[in-house]
Amino acid sequence: MATPAPHVAAIADELALAMVVSSDAPLLLLDGDLVVVAASDSFCGAFQVQPVDVSGRSFFDIGAGEWNLPKLRSLLTATASGLAAVKDYEIDLSAPGRDMRRLVIKAQKLVYGDPAAPRLLMTICDVTEARLAEKIKDELIREKAVLLQEVQHRVANSLQIIASVLMQSARKVQSEETRRHLKDAHQRVMSIATVQRQLASSHAGDIELRPYFKQLCQSLGASMIRDHDKQSIEVNADDSVVKADISVSLGLIVTELVINALKHAFPDERAGKIIVGYRSEGRNWTLSIEDDGVGMPKGKAPAATPGLGTSLVEALTRQLHATIKVTDRNPGTAVSIIGLDRTGVDGANLSPQQPAI
Ligand SMILES: Nc1ncnc2c1ncn2[C@@H]1O[C@H](COP(=O)(O)OP(=O)(O)OP(=O)(O)O)[C@@H](O)[C@H]1O
Ligand SMILES: [Mg+2]
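# magnesium ion complex -> structure
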């Protein structure tokens, strides 16, 4: 490379120094011995030193010697000899009489015409406020998560209390029909309490359906099956995860249909099994409740006004934009709730049907 004429080199030097001094970002130009050649006004302002006290002094003697940190010294020495470069090195700078500052330092050896006079360009970025804001934000997020969990625990406890009150009332009443209604109401509340419990340990309000259905069916079986050798409930669900509001609807449907099967499919202590299934593929999904019991009564017209359970299942199915399909399994009954992607091909399948359950 041709050496520039002396006056051209002097002009280039002056230009480089003027650029460093006027930089908005705190900047230092150091020589090969880590002596300050130039410091930006922004550096002097940010670290409260006078330009005359900086230029010509060793970088490590600036101020009260607060920059004289062994690790930084060895990194800069390695950079000056061309062995390394300082990339985003973080230090805590504590100058006497000033608050501690967190700084991110970058330094690199400049590639230019004179190898006998190496130069290092060093930028110092003060990230104290940014780090503090991040810390406050993280603490707020953690606090919010703890509060949310607390609320979820409390709601779950309250629902549990309501369910117990309903159960106690069911034990006390004389009328068999009222007792049945109270027990069903107890199960409906339990189904929502189970979602609440799952929510307390979930991330971002998502519910894994398999453990949720398992817990739900375990609770239904514990309170409604008298002889566990004769009747059982099995859950056969894939790894689907849904939002909490969807899981509440699915859980209530499972509750109603499992209660129906337990109440009607196995008369006279008939043995049998109920299988709760859930499969999804893309945006299509199927929830099924199958039993191998006596099957739906044949040749009986559906009741003019459906019971509360049937109305609930129909309303929830509509809300989920799904349809209900009841199949005779011979033996037993299968009720499927089928959710199809509403942008799917066969739009006719998407309007809710209302068969008697
Ligand atoms: N899995 C099933 N196996 C056999 N029969 C069933 C089954 N599910 C429902 N049924 C029949 O459907 C009828 C209606 O069910 P159910 O009495 O549960 O009414 P409902 O509309 O669900 O109201 P509710 O649950 O509030 O009492 C029952 O009397 C029963 O004959
Ligand atoms: Mg019912």
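# post-check
The helical segments are 6-22, 41-46, 70-80, 128-172, 176-200, 209-224, 244-265, 308-319.
The first helix runs from residue 6 to 22.
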